[in-house]
Amino acid sequence: MGVIGFLALAANFTSVLLLMSYKDGDANVRSVWLCSRNDAIGNIAVMAAALGVFGTGTAWPDLIVAALLALLGISGGIQIVQQAWLELRRTARLLQHIAWPLVHFIPLDDAAFDRFQPGGRYKVKLRLCGMIPFGTQWIVTSLHEAEGSEWPKRLRDNGHSALIPKWDHWITVTPDPNGGTRYSDEVEVSAGALTPLIWAFAQIFYRHRQRRWRKLAESLASRRVIAAEMAAYHSAVQEGDDGTRAASKAMLLPVALAALVASPAFGQDLTLEEAIRRALTAAPQNASVAAQVDALKANRAAADLPPRPSLEIATENFGPPSDSLYDQFQITGTYSQQIERGGKRQARVTLADRQIDVAMAQAVVRRLEFISDVQLAYVEVQAAEAAIGVARERLAIAQGVATEVDRRVASARDPIF
């Protein structure tokens, strides 16, 4: 796919990796900051490739760019994991979210349960499926970290109750070298004769928690790719998009330049970064991208559904009754259910996921191209301003000469003297 395509893909992968975080708290601010920083570096690399700096046919420049982007992604990913770890150990609302609807926790002390703290003790009532009482449980938290900033980070819940004397749960969080976060649950239970039943429940419960974590991460990544990586334009929505890059540039560039001219700060010094920010804020393409992603998500949800059964009813010999067995009224009902072979549904879901990834990658590439157009327009405006300054100086000189000539003519003096 060429050097430019490879760099665009790497920048998109890095952005998605950095957005794999949580919704609230400091992790959000940290994610947006890291995404903006890495996106800027990715833009520089892509622009350099477009100018032919890294497309000369030699291997080492491309290798250097790929290595720098990989290091950037790993560094940013580790920082995101650190912020996610802080949110994980502090925010009790996530516990309610990932346990729903199997288990609902009712804190006996709302203020104490608002945020987990290392060394805390929290007594809660348990409700299975939100309705069935399951007694009370003590949640006893403790933080176990290696010295310095070494991984892994571990959080322990050494809980217990009258029904379950021992519920020793360990959460381990580590960065994934391939991107993202490795999250694991380990639990040791002891409930006497009820231990096999509690063990079976724990198997179901923690698998459910893992699915909820993954869905939460996927939904946050999708929203933030649109909201943060695509700058959440929130501007007037313009209908119609023919999908071609040339038409997209022709439509977006005048809008961006108009936004710059109509800005309240017009007349002040405008930096390139500020020009890009204003142009992205006024760009109308975010709505179409969001609609496309929503449609692909709907297709993904449909692909995850099993084939529906069908029911057919046919009637024959409808009319007056007859004594002949061949002419009697008949009703025939047919019920059919398609049985899929193993893996077909997963293949459909995987295809739908890849289509979402492709749409997001294309959106990022269009954003990079749009930023390139804004940069070129900014350079042209700077050149035009310089030309205006030169023209004004020449005009002032010409006006001075004309004034002097008029004065000499009025005095009837020889122009030579």
UniProtKB/TrEMBL annotation:
Signal peptide: none annotated. The chain crosses the membrane at residues 6-22, 42-60, 66-86. One of its GO terms (molecular function) is efflux transmembrane transporter activity. The keyword Membrane applies. Its main location: membrane. Keywords: Membrane, Transmembrane, Transmembrane helix. It is a multi-pass membrane protein. InterPro entries: Cation_efflux_TMD_sf (IPR027469), MdtP/NodT-like (IPR010131), OMP_efflux (IPR003423). The keyword Translocase does not apply. GO terms for cellular component: membrane. It is found in: Membrane. This is Uncharacterized protein. It comes from Tilletia caries (wheat bunt fungus). The lineage of its organism: Eukaryota, Fungi, Dikarya, Basidiomycota, Ustilaginomycotina.
